[in-house]
Structures are given as structure tokens and as C-alpha cells.
Design a protein that fits this description.
This protein is of the alpha+beta class. The protein has one domain. Strands 1, 2, 3, 4 and 5 form a five-stranded antiparallel beta sheet that branches. β2 and β3 form a beta hairpin. The radius of gyration is 15 Å and the shape is globular. The termini are far apart. This is DUF3037 domain-containing protein. InterPro entries: DUF3037. It comes from Hymenobacter nivis.
């Protein structure tokens, strides 16, 4: 039986009007220290987002979510936060904020492949 590693994940949410506390799941971010893994996967279903909030700027939303990707990659393109260690980047990305892109609370689990877990969680929680 393959060994399982601890992983943590949070759901990426679009919250068009923070005061209403309504959101739509658009992505997942997964961190697994043992596998050196930090990645996000997201989708922007335009029709669902438009039905949810006609005022959303989808280009701005896409730019914000792509910033999550760059920070996960940990390169200079991720800015100062992208230069932090993998655990610090995950903690920064999942910190509580009141903007149009928010994350759920962080949840733990066990996995053999963080990449497969990311794909599974995205399919289960977003698609």
C-alpha cells in the first residue's frame, strides 16, 4: 500500500458583493509539504458568473486568479510573495480577505498524489 501524505486545500470563491456573503466556487488550491506541491486550478464559467452577478469584470477576475497561479509557481513573476517558501505562499494565499476572490477555510486530508487530488477536488467542488 503506498504511503499517504498530509495535504491541505482551500476552495477559491468569487464573492461579487462581500456584504451579501454569496459566492461561487471557481477553483481549488492544494498544498502538500511532503511532495513539495503547491498548485491551483480554476475555471471561469462566464455564463454562470454573469447570471450570478452582471457587474463582474471577468478580465479583472481572471487576472486575480492568474496571480494565484504565479504565486504558487514561486518565481519572480509571483512578486515578493512568490519568493517566499512554499508553506508561507500557501498561508498567504489562504489568508482571510474581503475581496472579490476569497478562499474557504483550509481543510486537511491524506493523498498519494497531490496532483491527482487537485484534479479530483476541482471536479468535485468546482465543475
Amino acid at each position: 500500500m503506498p504511503a499517504k501524505d498530509l495535504f491541505e486545500y482551500a476552495v477559491l470563491r468569487v464573492v461579487p458583493r462581500v456584504e451579501r456573503e454569496e459566492f461561487l466556487n471557481v477553483g481549488v488550491i492544494v498544498y502538500c509539504r511532503a511532495q513539495g506541491f503547491l498548485q491551483t486550478r480554476f475555471a471561469l464559467p462566464e455564463a454562470r458568473l454573469r447570471a450570478f452577478s452582471a457587474e463582474l469584470d471577468l478580465d479583472d477576475l481572471a487576472a486575480r486568479l492568474h496571480a494565484f497561479e504565479r504565486i504558487c509557481q514561486g518565481r519572480a513573476a509571483g512578486g515578493p510573495i512568490g519568493q517566499l517558501g512554499i508553506a508561507e505562499r500557501f498561508r498567504w494565499l489562504t489568508a482571510t480577505r474581503s475581496t472579490v476572490v476569497q478562499t474557504s477555510p483550509v481543510h486537511p486530508g491524506l493523498c498519494t498524489s497531490a496532483a491527482e487530488t487537485l484534479a479530483h477536488l476541482h471536479a468535485q467542488l468546482v465543475e
